Structure formats: C-alpha cells, structure tokens
Amino acid sequence: MPHSPTQARRVLAGFAFASLGNGLTLPFLYVYMAQVQDLGSSTAGWMFAWMGLVGLAAAPGVGALLDRFGPRAVLIAALIVESVSIGSLGFVDGTVPTMAVLAGVVVGASPLWPGTTTLLAGMVSAEDRERAYGFAFLGLNAGIGVGGLVSAFLIDVARPETFQVLYLCDAVAYLVYAAVLAFLVRSPARAGEDEADNPAGGSWGEVLRDRRAVALVACGVLAVTFGYGQLEAGAT
C-alpha cells in the first residue's frame, strides 16, 4: 500500500480545524441549554444523558460503515450531518426539537475520530501510525482548547445571537474538513487481491472471545464513565 504523508497532513489539518469549531461550542453547551434556551439545569442534564444513549446506539454501526464504504466517504457524510445539526442548534426551541437536533449532532460526530484514524492508518507506514495518531489527538485537544478560549470572550447569555454565531462557525468548520476530504484527500489504496480474497474476515464474535480486547474495552468504559463523563457533566 503506497504511503501518502502529504495526504495525512491534510487530514490532520482538516481534523484540527473541525476540532477548533467544536471547541467554540462544546464547553458552553450546558450553559446554552440551561440558561439561554431556559430548559433548566435538570432538563439540560437529561439532554446530556440523551446524547450518551444516542451515541451508545450509534457506535456499533460506525465500524461496519467504515468497512463497507471506506472512511473518506463515511467522514464526508458524517461531517455534513454534523454541520447541519450543530448549525441548527442555535435556532431550535423546546425540549423535543432540541433532542432531535442533538441526536443529529451525536450521530454525525460518532464516525469522526474512528474514521479519521482509520483514514490515517492507510496513509502512513505502520511505524508512523502512533505519531500520526498522536498528532491527531494533539489537534483535537488544541482545537477544543483554543476554541473554548475564543468563545469565552464572545458569548453572552443575555444575547442568544452570540451563541447562534458560534454554532454557525462550528458548522462551517465541519464543512471545511468535509471539503478538504472531498477535494484534497484521496482514499487510501485498497488491500491487495490476496488480502481482499481472504475469506477469514473478522467478526464481533472473534473480538468478544479475545479476553484482552474485552478487558481493554471494559477499562475504557469505566474510565469514560467515571472520568470524562463526570468532568463534562459536572464541570459545566
């Protein structure tokens, strides 16, 4: 499989820019729902639980879509869904419409990290993958951090239009990443015929029989449930 470091750099740049847009809105989502939309703190908290349930339901299908259609096509479609959903969030009113838009946000966001890393895996050599994944995670955190700092100076709970502007900027950021993938990035070359014709394909049963894989997933679930989940819900 030919390696494409230039293509990988474009993917990383587009992903970092999308993360910057995400940083504009993510830290203040609770504030927007509880105070600007006036849903109240309890309902806003349930909205986060709703997003978690939608993400849990959407996650199993992400891998299958990436395998069937390729990461580039899935990412472009997901970014369009994410852009429309997040851009609409600043203009909806009421609990049910907000739930519907948030479901679109979660579904659109579900393939972004696995799709990006899968795309990168086909563009760099095996020994460079850890570095590429590290840069991707760096871009994610830097984008969210910088975006959060910028939005902190711009938002005003007494002026809903400030949130609307941020959500529209976030939508544009996702479209920029989609445009990068559509016009500047090629899909990685597919595996050779000898690999493609190999009937021994993977399955969920094979994964579940691997005790190390199950233990790793269980540790990840615990870390997210009692670490990241508490941080996102409590700190806001």
Describe this protein's structure.
The chain has 11 helices and no strands. With 236 residues, the protein is an all-alpha fold. The protein folds into 2 domains: 5-187, Growth Hormone, Chain: A, CATH 1.20.1250; 204-236. The chain is globular, with a radius of gyration of 19 Å. The model is unreliable at 191-197 (pLDDT under 50).
Shape: globular
Distance between the termini: 45 Å
Q: Roughly what is the average pLDDT, rounded to an integer?
A: 87
What are the segments in which pLDDT stays under 50 over at least 5 consecutive residues? 191-197
Portion of residues in helices?
A: over 70%
The number of E-state strands comes to: 0
Number of domains: 2
Determine Rg (CA atoms, Å): 19 Å
Order of helices and strands: HHHHHHHHHHH
For the sheet with most strands, the description reads: none
Structural class: mainly alpha
Please give the count of helices: 11
Task: Assign the CATH class of the largest domain.
Answer: Mainly Alpha
CATH-level-4 superfamily name of the largest domain: MFS general substrate transporter like domains
Task: Please supply descriptive tags for the structure shown above.
mainly alpha, Growth Hormone, Chain: A, globular
